[in-house]
């Protein structure tokens, strides 16, 4: 063990041991001095001039800046050792080569770490300015930095040119592609997702086949992290957003309107031509738009009721027109976007009537409140038009059939 530790110096003349020890102590002292000079004077002054000019908090440093300063300060002792090893031939060729190799490796590792910190700072600054994540590109750049660092370390240990190391990797390209196939696929997917701007941080993403619905909190090279609305975390491979279908609700949130598209069923047997009593009740009891009120006045004062039949005026048509007028009068409905109340093809459950409109608020809670209030009004006002909202018989309806007419009438009273 002792022979191994003394290997770089086992070719020295014993008379030079004292000189080597003196040189070693001097190198350590100079390294410590250079470290503190670089850290507390040169680098701090440079950071203050470059990044803190014009700030009120110019004396404060961020955690990342302090980490970069510490890492760069460690380069000074490495350079001191490297310079002294070249200027002192008394160490011998083997010892000099060993010290230079160690210094070269430490230099490359520290530079790689500093570059990675700078890349992280670039990602944070870009996200703050444009609210877009380039984490995938940053991770790719880190892989490139790591690859270059490994090649330089191998070149330093083997004492060969990095170009020779790169040329020897050409034969292993197929193996490297096989090993990093998932990384390459993720890289292509990340570039497509980022360049097309289809997914950003804070977007609402829904993937029904994976039971995922939530907010994007991170876009990395290999995965996209989503916080679901139940506060669980899902990580989806980036390539899935190229090969599989998903829904991005963010354009809806930024469009200024959220769609209401819901139907209710009308009992078809309750649809009939409008009677004069119905017209009078609607005019007297319901808030009507000026155009609908004028139409009702004209129908009420017509002498022949057959004219209503010829015009096809039914309680359902009046009901639809009233719902349209009601939606147009609401301040929380976006009047610029589509607003339709229409019939759908009849079904076994009745005649579907669909309300299609957009709310002004895209907030989920406010949207649900507006939608609920609309359909509560629809269900209540349908009685004024002598329309029956269809629903399947309940247990109470079936049990009422077991009573005779007198018993049923007594129960109703």
UniProtKB/TrEMBL annotation:
<keyword id="KW-0472">Membrane</keyword>
<keyword id="KW-1133">Transmembrane helix</keyword>
<dbReference type="InterPro" id="IPR023408">
    <property type="entry name" value="MscS_beta-dom_sf"/>
</dbReference>
<dbReference type="InterPro" id="IPR010920">
    <property type="entry name" value="LSM_dom_sf"/>
</dbReference>
<dbReference type="InterPro" id="IPR006685">
    <property type="entry name" value="MscS_channel_2nd"/>
</dbReference>
<feature type="transmembrane region" description="Helical">
    <location>
        <begin position="140"/>
        <end position="157"/>
    </location>
</feature>
<dbReference type="Pfam" id="PF00924">
    <property type="entry name" value="MS_channel_2nd"/>
</dbReference>
<feature type="transmembrane region" description="Helical">
    <location>
        <begin position="163"/>
        <end position="180"/>
    </location>
</feature>
<feature type="transmembrane region" description="Helical">
    <location>
        <begin position="97"/>
        <end position="119"/>
    </location>
</feature>
<feature type="domain" description="Mechanosensitive ion channel MscS">
    <location>
        <begin position="186"/>
        <end position="250"/>
    </location>
</feature>
<dbReference type="InterPro" id="IPR030192">
    <property type="entry name" value="YbdG"/>
</dbReference>
<protein>
    <submittedName>
        <fullName>Mechanosensitive ion channel</fullName>
    </submittedName>
</protein>
<keyword id="KW-0812">Transmembrane</keyword>
<feature type="transmembrane region" description="Helical">
    <location>
        <begin position="20"/>
        <end position="47"/>
    </location>
</feature>
